[in-house]
């Protein structure tokens, strides 16, 4: 196979998204090939031995590496500005592997309290089973980070903007605190997307994505990706992935490659649409509070302007009437779909208290600001006026 345009480090963003990492077979295909194979053949027994010893380049087994998956990994690394990347089966596989590959019994992890429900499970329930202490903090409070991060801390985990309340965390400030004791910073950047926020440039060490979201962008396939230094990916992450098997399907990797070609275009429109929707909903009589990083009413608007290239496509709002009001609104929608996914071309809305964060206690949800009236809206690529009309008529039924 030939490596078209090399790694393309010096190309501009839109070009990287279309051509980065492309390898062509002898057939000269324009669209990346899907290598749907579990294994690979060797010219000789000596060649097989050399490849297993990493003395000869090439592929061994698709649980470990695959040409289509490698193209996706290379393109993601170029986009993120990372030295290396590894694709995995889902976003949660990415979060789990990014943490587990570097931790052992006796280590400590400090995490922001406001993270996706399954991420909370990994940090709060799973890691302690292996003798890894975990501490949760208010991610917006730098003094809380300073108090929790000690010389025993090995990893720090956070999401920004956080799911579902769109709480923002100062990545650079937290990284400075963590690096002072030698801890690594792992950032889940899924809400911001790699187009709008660059955690590595802000001091993070590792970035994870659910590629299922904006990277695919059309709700078709599951996938995840982990990005970081070449040494971390080679010496810690790859070994863990090889022996635990959360492999990304070559077909799904191909879907993600196609998604990356239009990512910048889609995210730009997502942001425009979400900004219109948020502005239209602000001050609505049936909404108690609206949270969107692109509005000055957001408590961390200044941080969003400093840290992000755009506010993203997620909008959170509290409907009057608690759960009953939220459910009436959801059930009256005619265009926007009820779904726990996000980053889709279609606008999607969910009720976090009964879906993504339902395993948390009422008290813990209250600490996070996830009350029964909160709805999380992922604004899609429809005409924003149609989305606004649908939301307005649905809200009117709950009044």
Describe the structure in your own words:
The protein is of the alpha/beta class. It has a 7-stranded mixed β-sheet, with helices on both faces. Helix 4 packs parallel to helix 5. The radius of gyration is 22 Å and the shape is globular. The mean pLDDT is 96.
What is the structure about, briefly put?
With 399 residues, this protein is of the alpha/beta class. It contains 15 helices and 14 strands.
* Helix-strand string: EHEHHEHEHEHEHEHEEHHHEHEHEEHEH
Largest sheet: 7 strands, mixed
Report the count of strand segments: 14
Helix content: 25-40%
Distance between the termini: 62 Å
Spatial strand arrangement across the major sheet: 3-9-8-7-6-4-5
Low-pLDDT sequence parts: none
Question: What is the mean pLDDT?
Answer: 96
Shape type: globular
Number of helices: 15
The assigned structural class equals alpha/beta
Write the layout of secondary structure elements.
Elements: E1 2-3, H1 13-19, E2 23-24, H2 45-52, H3 67-80, E3 84-88, H4 91-100, E4 108-112, H5 117-129, E5 133-137, H6 142-148, E6 153-159, H7 171-179, E7 184-188, H8 193-196, E8 206-210, E9 224-228, H9 230-244, H10 250-261, H11 263-281, E10 287-291, H12 301-307, E11 314-319, H13 322-332, E12 337-338, E13 348-350, H14 362-368, E14 374-378, H15 384-398
Parallel strand pairs: 4-5, 4-6, 6-7, 7-8, 12-13
Antiparallel strand pairs: 1-2, 3-9, 8-9, 10-11, 11-14, 13-14
List keywords for this structure.
399 residues, alpha/beta, 7-stranded mixed beta sheet, 5-stranded mixed beta sheet, 16% strand
């Amino acid at each position: 196979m030939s490596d078209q345009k090399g790694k393309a480090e010096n190309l501009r963003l839109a070009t990287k998204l279309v051509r980065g990492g492309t390898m062509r077979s002898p057939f000269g295909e324009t669209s990346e090939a899907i290598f749907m194979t579990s294994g690979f053949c060797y010219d000789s027994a000596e060649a097989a031995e050399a490849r297993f010893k990493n003395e000869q380049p090439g592929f061994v087994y698709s649980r470990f590496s695959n040409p289509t998956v490698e193209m996706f990994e290379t393109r993601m690394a170029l986009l993120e500005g990372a030295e290396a990347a590894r694709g995995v089966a889902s976003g949660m596989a990415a979060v789990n592997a990014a943490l587990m590959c570097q931790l052992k019994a006796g280590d400590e992890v400090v995490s922001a309290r406001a993270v996706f429900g399954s991420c909370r499970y990994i940090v709060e329930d799973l890691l302690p089973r292996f003798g890894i202490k975990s501490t949760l903090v208010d991610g917006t409070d730098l003094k809380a980070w300073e108090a929790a991060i000690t010389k025993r801390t090995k990893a720090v985990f956070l999401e920004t903007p956080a799911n579902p309340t769109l709480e923002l965390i100062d990545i650079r400030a937290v990284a400075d605190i963590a690096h002072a004791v030698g801890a690594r910073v792992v950032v889940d950047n899924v809400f911001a997307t790699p187009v709008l926020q660059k955690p590595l440039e802000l001091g993070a060490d590792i970035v994870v994505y659910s590629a299922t979201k904006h990277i695919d962008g059309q709700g078709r396939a599951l996938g995840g990706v982990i990005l970081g230094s070449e040494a971390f990916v080679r010496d810690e992450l790859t070994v863990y992935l090889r022996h635990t098997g959360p492999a990304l399907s070559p077909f799904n990797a191909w879907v993600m490659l196609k998604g990356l070609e239009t990512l910048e275009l889609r995210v730009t429109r997502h942001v425009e649409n979400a900004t219109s929707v948020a502005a239209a909903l602000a001050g609505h009589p049936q909404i108690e509070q609206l949270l969107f990083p692109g509005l000055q009413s957001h408590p961390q608007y200044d941080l969003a302007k400093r840290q992000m290239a755009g506010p993203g496509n997620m909008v959170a709002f509290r409907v009057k009437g608690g759960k009953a009001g939220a459910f009436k609104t959801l059930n009256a929608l005619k265009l926007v779909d009820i779904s726990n996914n996000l980053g889709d071309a279609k606008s999607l809305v969910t009720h976090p208290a009964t879906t993504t964060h339902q395993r948390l206690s009422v008290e813990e949800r209250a600490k996070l600001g996830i009350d029964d009236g909160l709805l999380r809206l992922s604004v899609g690529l429809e005409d924003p006026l149609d989305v606004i009309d649908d939301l307005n008529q649905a809200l009117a039924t709950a009044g």
